[in-house]
Amino acid sequence: MTAPHAIAAVMARLARDLGPGGVLTGDDVTARSCDPFTHVPPASPALLRPQSTEDVARIMRLCHDARQPVVVHGGRTGVCGGAVAQENELVVSLERMRRIIDIDPVSATMIVEAGAAIEAVQAAAAAHGLFYPIDLGSKGTATIGGTIATNAGGNRVIRWGMTRQNVLGLEVVLADGTVLDLLNRCLKNNTGYDLKQLFIGSEGTLGVVCKAVLRLVPLPTTQQVALVSLNRYGDVLELLGRARALQQLSAFEVMWQDYYATVATDPARKIVDPGAEFFVLIECMGHSKAADEEAFSALLERALEDGLLVDAVVASSARQVDDIWRVREGSEILMREMGPFVSFDISVDIRRADEFVAAVNAGLATSLGEYRAVAFGHLGDGNIHIGVHTGPATLAHKHAIERCVYDVVRDFGGALTAEHGIGTAKREFLPEHITPAALATMHTVRHALDPGRLINRNVLFEG
């Protein structure tokens, strides 16, 4: 642990190097939160605010020489404890590094700083008729750097893939202050190891992402959205197969009955009758209004004729599109109706998702007795979210709930985390969900790039 006087010396030096507003202390630090839902202030004595890659390199060189650990902050929208900072760690916030550096409509690429918010990036792209397709409920706050660190996915992975598929290049500062210029703009580039892939999804444990080259797509000009209900999981899979035949398909979100019934307690979100077993939000985004509407209507009409659907509501305006999406993004209703709850973000074989949810419920009933759970998610890419509530003392039972759910995930061969990352919250379970050889290789990579474990030292691995 760095001695208090050594931390003070680092802070004093950086206060000079970073200039006015570069180092925050006291209430300016504790007023912040490391968690988006609960106020968890950083225990750190200071928050560093670089304005450039050079500033980040200066910070890391000084901290490396002093063996001073740091925690990197983006938009702090992560829910796995990756932003939690201890009293012997300094926080490096990239909030002043949010420039849109360049947009090239010809190559459909954009260079941005890591502190830029997803929504700001999308707005800048849209001004050029382009679209950055990573879409999150927290896009107004979530940053490019944070989503790269966690390889975020969001609502439209079925069409455009995870963050990994939408990043062409990076600029990264390593733990010793070395700057890696990997700002490639070429779609095809097999010049040695693709080093950027090491940092995407590494949760900030291998280096600090400072800039990114993003891959853009033409801005969709049409959007069709429907909310449909079904009674059999086999019908959900059949509908998914048919929907995938549409090139315009951009989202296929499934809500189990328990989730929809909870959200539908808000009359504005009771779009269809909540009596069915499954509810699916289907979205298509394209560029030909007449052709896209015809294909979308044909999909739903055929599904109704074949008895797959119980009911269907198609949005006829931009407001109705928003209303239907608000059904799927009903986190505030869940907090009101069943808070506090323990949330899960896992992936599982799509064919067995309903069987998985049933097994989770059976396990919870056996382990906990009375409980309440909801299930929903991006079924088109196998990502399921589950929320579990056992009463006012839910958080006191958090570990028992996690143990129950993650045991089922392991038994089904699923992924411990689909898009939120491991952070500090799930690291205990990581060794149970990957092979010993894979875990050892991860340790080897981390030691090679940050042997002193100075960056996000408590993330991913215990000890």
Query: Number of helix segments?
Result: 15
Biggest pleated sheet: 7 strands, antiparallel
Shape: globular
Strand portion:
15-25%
- Give the total of beta strands: 18
The computed structural class is: alpha+beta
Global mean pLDDT: 95
Give unreliable regions as ranges: none
The largest sheet has its strands arranged as 15-12-14-13-17-18-16
Radius of gyration: 23 Å
Please give the alpha-carbon distance between the first and last residues: 13 Å
* Helicity level: 25-40%
Provide keyphrases for this structure.
21% strand; five-stranded antiparallel sheet; 463 residues; seven-stranded antiparallel sheet
Q: Overview of this structure, please?
A:
The protein starts with a helix and ends in a 14-residue tail after the last helix. α1 packs antiparallel against α3 and α13 runs antiparallel to α14. The model has no long low-confidence stretch (mean pLDDT about 95). Helix content is about 35%, strand content about 20%. A seven-stranded antiparallel β-sheet has the order 15-12-14-13-17-18-16, sandwiched between helices. Strands 5-6-10-8-9 form a five-stranded antiparallel β-sheet. The protein is an alpha+beta fold and about 475 residues long.
Element layout with pairings:
Layout: H1 4-18, E1 23-24, H2 27-30, E2 47-48, H3 53-66, E3 70-73, E4 90-93, E5 100-104, E6 109-113, H4 118-126, E7 130-131, H5 144-150, H6 157-160, E8 167-173, E9 179-182, H7 196-199, E10 208-215, E11 217-218, E12 222-230, H8 233-244, E13 249-256, H9 257-263, E14 278-286, H10 289-305, E15 311-314, H11 318-328, H12 331-338, E16 342-347, H13 353-368, E17 372-378, E18 383-389, H14 398-411, H15 436-449
Parallel strand pairs: 2-4, 3-4
Antiparallel strand pairs: 1-2, 5-6, 6-10, 7-11, 8-9, 8-10, 12-14, 12-15, 13-14, 13-17, 16-18, 17-18
Helix pairs in contact: 1-3, 13-14
